[in-house]
Amino acid sequence: MSLPTTSDPRAADRAAPGRGKLTEVADRVLAYIQPDGGWCVSNSGALIGPDAVAVIDTAATRARALALADALAAVTPLRPRTLINTHAHGDHTFGNFAFAPEATVIGHDLARAEIVANGHMLRDLWPGTEWGEFPIVPPSVTFPTRLTLHVGDILVELIHVGPAHTTGDVVAWLPEERVLFAGDVLLSGCTPFVLMGSVAGSLRAVARLRALGPRTVVCGHGPVCGPEVLDATEAYLNWLHATARAGIDAGLTPLQTALDTALGDFAGLLDPERLVGNLHRAYAEERGAPEGATVPLGPALEDMVAWNGGRPLTCLA
Ligand SMILES: [Zn+2]
Fold first, then answer.
1. Of 73, 196, 250, 278, whose CB neighbour count within 10 A is largest?
2. Which protein residues have their CB within 5 A of the ion that is ligand 1?
3. Domains annotated on the chain, with CATH
């Protein structure tokens, strides 16, 4: 954990990072929300069937993953038998160890490949974070498009909607409760992040998710919200696309474009430096890169730090 600095607007959060809290968003459907929802501080879900429990996503650090397991143990005597990973990122999957091998880990084909390839790499981005020691546990059950789960009598549709936030994004849709666990395809109060996915693919994903008609949305980060997050995400993505197009036409780099651009309506979202990374993706797509094609992460991350005035990205995990 980095020490707080007076120039850091989230210094108070750094000193006392938020812990997760379980809330019931529908009958026996729980959201585990970790404030403040910024980098690596992610949300989980739990479905408490009469004789089965499923968990959706884990957490970034050993301590946070064990705290999630403890929180669930306090509300049900049943041990989770199923764990769904919405995507590959470590803040959603590093905690798999706390539930496997008792729980079968399920994810998209591409997410498994990414988890295996990346290992503990995310830890290198924030060496000051107290990650703890844990093994990487990739999904053992994977699928390419859709999978239906029955958690007792709770019906769950797992739907691949990538490339959006990553290539292997899966959402968990509960059609009877109209609850959507969106992973990082939708973020609540946080800047969208598509560097490792696709702008056009994200816009398509938002349209698909809107068509489901969710009443309650549990995003990968940030507070529980409603379908208004679809409009907010779509507005950001359209603005990102237009900003990238204007920057390319003006002959500017992604960083120059970001520095020249007022955040306007989006200034209140957490982790605004993601604009620069998003522009790297948008530029690549505007120049013909296939959706989800590899965009070098190093230069994009360096540009995000530069946009941040040289200050490292704030990770409260
Ligand atoms: Zn993510």
1. 278
2. 89, 184
3. 11-227 (3.60.15.10)
CA 18 – ligand 1 centroid, Å:
19
State the distance from the centre of ligand 1 to the C-alpha of 186, rounded, in angstroms: 10
- 16-47 pLDDT, tens digit per residue, is 446 899 999 999 999 999 999 999 999 999 99
| Alpha carbon distance 203, 299 (integer Å) | 25
Q: Separation of 165 CA from ligand 1 center, angstroms? A: 7
Residue-level pLDDT at 3: 34
Q: What is the mean pLDDT of the chain?
A: 94
* Cα-to-centroid distance, 45 and ligand 1 (Å): 15
Span from the CA of 88 to the centroid of ligand 1 (angstroms): 7
How many CA atoms lie less than 13 Å away from 203 in the CB half-sphere? 11
| Residue 1 predicted with pLDDT over 70 | no
Alpha carbons 20 and 59: distance in angstroms, whole number: 10
